[in-house]
Design goal:
Elements lengths: L37 E9 L7 E11 L9 E9 L10 E4 L7 H6 L3 H6 L6 E4 L16 E3 L8 H21 L9 H15 L4 E6 L1 H13 L3 E7 L11 H16 L2 H6 L3 H14 L2 E6 L6 E6 L1 H10 L4 H4 L2 H9 L4 H8 L3 E3 L3 H10 L3 H11 L26 H4 L8 E6 L7 H7 L6 E7 L6 H4 L2 H11 L8 E3 L16
Parallel strand pairs: 4-5, 4-7, 7-8, 8-12, 12-13, 13-14
Antiparallel strand pairs: 1-2, 2-3, 3-5, 6-11, 9-10
Helix pairs in contact: 4-5, 8-9, 8-11, 9-12
């Protein structure tokens, strides 16, 4: 499974037995409405997680469920509009959350709330819950559970098959509830965004996206570029890069190893991180390890057997950025010392839990990958430390779901003169700077801001006040003041030895 906050699936997984909590089943029906493209707005008080509440408007946009197979079925998209503070506002700014599956309204309530407020200087700022996310309807939650065997090492083909079967059951249940899960594609969402533009009465809009939100923004540019004024894209995911390249993971892992060597406390215990990972992988390939885990409160126990793919998968999950890989040397040091508890504990989280959102899976399955891209992934996986663990359980999870592949024409690079501000972090294990650099070849009006030391997600917007200043200058139609921002060095957690306690 592709690890995310980063991880593409964002699974909530739990151990079995007393470790399971009761799952709440949410049943949603597809909305029926006499006509699509209707926008209703009503005053609301928006309450962020921190900060003062502000006046806003809560909106509901009715759009077709599936334009490729026209019917009377429609769905509801929810949004919050923050009115511009300018006397002469420019095009509305539409925020596109990542995931896929993230909530734009939820993002506005979190640490990025000050950015939403600041950008009102340039136009209305709209936090959109894309189809199948957040407060939009229908809900695309899978209430079905999955379980990958605990008593043997993780096997890719087996895990992909289990996820595919579970997702098929979820899709079939949604279909019985009147929901066509195959309608949840990035192409449909791109058309939703243009329908929103029309409903707002705007000639053009500005797109502001992060991670998967950049993928959706690029699809919107391809389909409706004449109506996009400009775009801010942080953590760029090109249309052909839904599945990640093992070589990018390898490059970041080696960069982390070099950074760790400069830390005396780390280097004393783990002189060469990549060499240690190679040794551990070989050890598990030769002989898997069995670990018994006990619940700290109920004392119920479960036995987990871990192998090389378990290690690769857990390490790939740590590569989102410094906040997640800071503990990697300590983790590896414990394993080399014979304490396998941490690996078994982390690996067990993938073995059982509730299936991911049907929206998230459908979106990624539809965006797919070209034959050449898949071949490159397979070739690179054979000669990289973490193989193709980053993408698990894709692409196998897509089998039997009936989600149409959008095709190579959709994934093909394209050219545009639309002004872009691309933001990348040098320690981003999900969307490396190379993605943005490749995109710039076809976008003649693109500017690239590289943040040295930033990982994925929030650091791409919040790690330095210079980022907001660059966004402001870009929205003013000017060159950004600097193309590189340097953050403080990574602070690793010093390796420690675990003690046995009651």
């Amino acid at each position: 499974m592709s690890p995310k906050n980063g991880n593409k699936l964002k699974l909530s997984a739990y151990l079995l037995g007393a470790w399971f909590l009761l799952a709440t089943s949410l049943t949603s029906q597809t909305v029926q409405a006499p006509a699509a493209n209707r926008l209703a707005l009503e005053p609301t008080t928006f309450k962020p997680a921190s900060g003062e509440p502000v006046a806003a408007e809560l909106g509901t946009l009715i759009v077709p469920e599936k334009r490729q197979a026209p019917s009377e079925r429609t769905i509801k998209l929810k949004l919050v509009r923050f009115r511009s503070t300018s006397q002469n506002p420019g095009p509305p700014i539409v925020y596109l959350a990542g995931g896929p599956g993230g909530s734009g309204i939820g993002a506005a309530k979190g640490p990025r709330f000050p950015l939403f407020m600041a950008l009102r200087e340039f136009g209305d700022v709209i936090a959109l819950d894309q189809r199948g996310t957040g407060e939009s309807e229908p809900k695309m939650r899978c209430t079905e559970w999955f379980m990958v065997p605990f008593d043997k090492p993780l096997d890719r083909a087996e895990a992909e098959g289990i996820f595919a079967a579970g997702m098929k059951t979820c899709f079939e249940r949604l279909s019985r509830e009147g929901i066509d899960a195959t309608a949840y594609t990035t192409l449909e969402s791109a058309h939703d965004i243009d329908d929103l533009r029309k409903a707002l009465g705007a000639e053009k809009i500005t797109l502001w996206g992060i991670s998967y939100g950049t993928h959706l923004a690029l699809a919107t540019l391809r389909e409706h570029g004449d109506h996009v004024d400009r775009a801010i894209l942080a953590g760029v995911e090109p249309l052909g890069h839904t599945l990640k390249l093992p070589s990018d993971q390898e490059a970041l892992l080696r960069s982390i190893s070099e950074l760790a060597k400069r830390d005396r406390a780390v280097a004393a215990s783990v002189p060469d991180l990549t060499a240690a990972i190679s040794r551990l992988t070989a050890r598990l390939r030769k002989e898997p390890v069995t670990v018994t885990l006990a619940h700290p409160m109920t004392r119920q126990s479960i036995t987990v057997q871990v192998g090389p793919l378990d290690l690769q998968y857990v390490l790939a999950g740590m590569l989102e950025g410094p906040a997640t890989f800071a503990g990697m040397p300590d983790f590896v040091s414990r394993l080399e010392g014979g304490d396998w508890t941490a690996l078994a504990s982390q690996a067990s989280l993938f073995r059982a839990g509730m299936l991911p959102s049907a929206m998230s899976v459908a979106m990624d399955c539809a965006s797919g990958a070209s034959t050449d891209h898949l071949a490159r992934i397979q070739a690179e996986a054979k000669k990289t430390l973490l193989g193709d663990a980053i993408n698990l359980p894709f692409p196998g999870i897509c089998q039997g779901l009936g989600v149409p592949d959008l095709g190579d024409a959709y994934r093909k690079s394209f050219e545009s003169k639309t002004p872009l501000l691309l933001i990348s972090g040098t320690l981003d294990g999900r969307t490396p700077p190379r993605n943005a650099e490749g995109l710039m070849k076809g976008f003649t009006q693109a500017q690239h801001l590289v943040i040295e030391g930033a990982g994925h997600s929030d650091p791409l917007f919040l790690s330095s006040p210079q980022i907001l200043e660059a966004m402001r200058e870009f929205l003013r139609g000017k060159k950004i003041p600097a193309t590189r921002i340097v953050l403080d060095p990574v602070r690793f957690l010093p390796p420690q030895k675990a003690s046995k306690v009651d």
